[in-house]
Design a protein that fits this description.
451 residues, 21 strands, 23% strand, single chain, alpha/beta
């Protein structure tokens, strides 16, 4: 068994509580944030900095779900052009975060490189750069020989690539808890093991958040609940076509230097960390665990699912039975709680294939060994763009969800925009493509890349 990496990544099965829950639940706050991922933690931090008395509630532990399970890329490269301005804003924040928060985040400005296996892929990179050159001037196209010079350990020839040296990486759980700890010092009350049951309203305005431990009255509610967001929004008359896919990730034992930049190509993603260990995953393979809920809003997803059917595997198993049991036994108001930390099974076949692909792709990876593999549930929306909006139907409600597997790096900018929306500031122009009502209005577009 290889030695464990000195740098943690995915949360352990038993996590220490970040903050002790008070014996008496706060009766009132200015704002209640639902969800302890990086979006919720950053939002709570910036809300408190704006002078709002803020409570963050999390049904499990801060960073226990996808915000602690992702790849850790902080990239602007090859993002949807509609999302790119938000990513650029976030990238401007990351380098100063450790000083601002007084906590480690694992930030490194080591760049990002995507390589093209075919001329078709390279042509897609060319079109993206032509469209985004004014927004992302640091990205440059690479020829095949330039890729080889930049990645001497890469064994395969390429058709070219994209390289953004200003992009970087951070440690997911570390960065998320950094926001939470800084928030606590700034006055945020964090309630772990405290799930949201409902967002309460009165007269078309937010009036409170009902938790499993009682009601917290508030004027602002931030729904940053990841894949459970649609359940909290539906009773408010807000229909969100949100689904989830299961993605498997692995941590390797330390390896010789393979790539300094975050890497995507030939069907894999790889991030090598300062201790030499690597986060690796299949870039184009995810599982869809079928349940009765899978058919909700299926019409929004079916065209892309058929178009990219080789990248998804439909699975019928435990999630289907759990969903059926919940619908038959669990009261509707309590379904948003779900299980505290439901087991999310890693796809061992994907992990093995990814391990072998890295071994063949990179010189120096011949002795690659997997320390552990895990999976996370990625909440997705039909256009693979998030919702970051204050829907006009409910005053005081802010929604930050649906980041579709590439939200981690956006977290700092999302938190800032949530705070601005909360104080009534007019939404920034860059948020226009991320409006909640785009699905009802039919103004959403095809995903920039496969879901």
């Amino acid at each position: 068994m290889p030695a464990l990496s000195l740098l943690s990544h995915v949360p352990d099965d038993v996590m220490a509580r970040l903050a002790a829950r008070p014996a008496v639940l706060p009766e009132r706050a200015d704002a209640v944030v639902i969800g302890g991922g990086i979006m919720g933690a950053a939002a709570a931090y910036y809300l408190a900095r704006a002078g709002m008395e803020t409570v963050l509630i999390e049904r499990d532990r801060v960073s226990s779900q996808q915000s602690g399970r992702n790849w850790g890329f902080v990239r602007t490269q090859y993002r949807d052009p509609l999302e790119l301005p938000l990513a650029m804003e976030a990238l401007s924040i990351w380098p100063g975060l450790e000083q601002e928060l007084g906590e480690a985040t694992g930030w490194r400005r080591n760049g990002c490189i995507f390589v093209a296996d075919t001329e078709q892929e390279q042509n897609a990179f060319v079109r993206w750069q032509e469209r985004t050159r004014d927004i992302s001037p640091n990205t440059r196209l690479l020829s095949g020989p330039e890729v080889s010079a930049l990645l001497p350990s890469l064994r395969r020839a390429t058709a070219g690539g994209l390289h953004t040296p200003s992009d970087g990486q951070a440690e997911p759980a570390l960065a998320t808890t950094a926001f939470a700890r800084a928030g606590i010092r700034g006055g945020v009350t964090i309630l772990e093991d405290c799930g949201a049951i409902a967002i309460e309203t009165a007269g078309g305005k937010v009036s409170g958040v009902q938790t499993e431990h009682g009601l917290i009255r508030c004027n602002v509610a931030v729904c940053a609940a990841g894949s459970l967001s649609h359940r909290l929004l539906a009773p408010l008359g807000l229909s969100l076509p949100q689904q989830s896919v299961r993605s498997t990730v692995s941590l390797t034992a330390p390896l010789p230097p393979l790539t300094d930049a975050c890497f995507c190509g030939f069907g894999i993603g790889l991030r090598q960390r300062p201790d030499g260990s690597c986060i690796i995953a299949a870039d184009s393979n995810s599982d869809i665990d079928l349940s009765l809920d899978s058919f909700r809003a299926a019409r929004f997803f079916l065209p892309e699912l058929l178009r990219h059917r080789n990248g998804f595997a439909l699975r019928l198993g435990r999630p289907f039975m759990d969903d059926l049991h919940e619908r038959l036994v669990v009261p509707r108001r309590e379904r948003a709680l779900a299980a505290r930390r439901p087991p999310i099974e890693a796809n061992r076949e994907y992990a093995t294939k990814t391990n072998e692909a890295v071994r063949q792709l990179f010189a120096g990876a011949e002795a690659i060994a997997i320390v552990k593999s895990w999976a996370g549930r990625i909440d997705v929306l039909p256009d693979a763009l998030p919702v970051l909006d204050a829907p006009g139907q409910i005053a005081g409600l802010i929604v930050a969800t649906g980041f579709s597997g590439h939200g981690f790096g956006l977290g700092p900018a999302v938190g800032r925009h949530v705070a601005r929306l909360a104080d009534g500031t007019e939404p920034a122009d860059i948020l226009a493509p991320l409006r909640f009502d785009r699905f009802a209005r039919g103004t959403y577009t095809r995903p920039h890349a496969p879901l």
